[in-house]
Amino acid sequence: MKLESKLPGSKTSIFSVMSKMANQYEAINLSQGFPNFETDHKLKDLVTKAMKDGYNQYPPDAGVLELRKMISRKFNGLYGKYYKPETEITITSGATEALYNSITAFVQKGDEVIVLKPAYDSYEPTIQLAGGIPVQIQLKGSDYKVDWEEVAKAITNRTRMIIINTPHNPTGTVLSKEDMLKLQKLLKDTNIILLSDEVYQHLIFDGRLHQSASRFPELSKRSIVCGSFGKTFHNTGWKTGYCVAPEELMKEIRKIHELTTFSVNHPMQRAYAEYLEEPKHYLDLAGFYQEKRDTFLKLISDSKFRSEPSNGTYFQLLDFSEITTEKDTDFAERLVKEHQLAAIPVSVFNIDEKDHSQLRFCFAKTNETLEKAAEILCSL
Fold it and tell me: What distance in Å separates the CA atoms of residue 156 and residue 198, rounded to the nearest whole number?
């Protein structure tokens, strides 16, 4: 049988590659973005309670209404934007489904979608599956700033969507208020949709405010904002996320959602709904992860790695240019094989695999794990 791939240039995800190597060489895995500590027992107990209370069949396709009400309350409290729970919020199977649904709902054959590189590796394949054309713009320098003039020049009459990600994976940078105002001005009087990947919205450090697209009235009218409970509450395996958007956009997103997963695990939704009644469960996360970041950087302070503290997410970039002239992909492979420590080479996310001699490390780990990893890094 002769088959023609719809994604002929697609490679195995670098996250899968490095995690497989980590398992093969019994390495400490600071590559893939997941915590190695337990979910709050209160939340696990709420899941058990929901199961025992009989919430084991399909929930409403848009998600449990109580959970959507909690998300609405959260966005209104944090960003001053009210989303109608009934028509403007949908629960998805992780944020990846929310991103997939949002792209495939609006991108048609020949449409252009602007993607800021480095970028999460699900964006471009999804654009291509929808028949769209990714238009790549490289963030500038080793500190990854957006050149908004370059973005403006890239906009054409075929531009359907721009995708942003803040706080940013893999770099740990965040967009400022000034960035968002420039973007708002840029998109005014256009038909361009903004897809804002904000899965790390609660992981932002040093007193910064998360500049959600929802904060900006003119921007929010054209924005789809995607979030993740797994990233927020240390249970990525539960695969529960959501998106919020104006009703006219959400109506189309839900059409795709019904054809992909239809609905999302019921007990987890019930548990999250009750857990979110206490805002400190998400408001305290910034301090928790900032302490993790600071612990990791202090532990490696005597190493040859150079760094600027991450502004958000649970990722830290480390510059290894004083250690080796190897490509980051080669150094990452050697680090696993010879030193049993897994990290992510950043070049794989850049245009033409531009190499700044940086590796990405996940610090969402126990202090014991971070200490063992730091011992290896300090020995190099």
Answer: 26
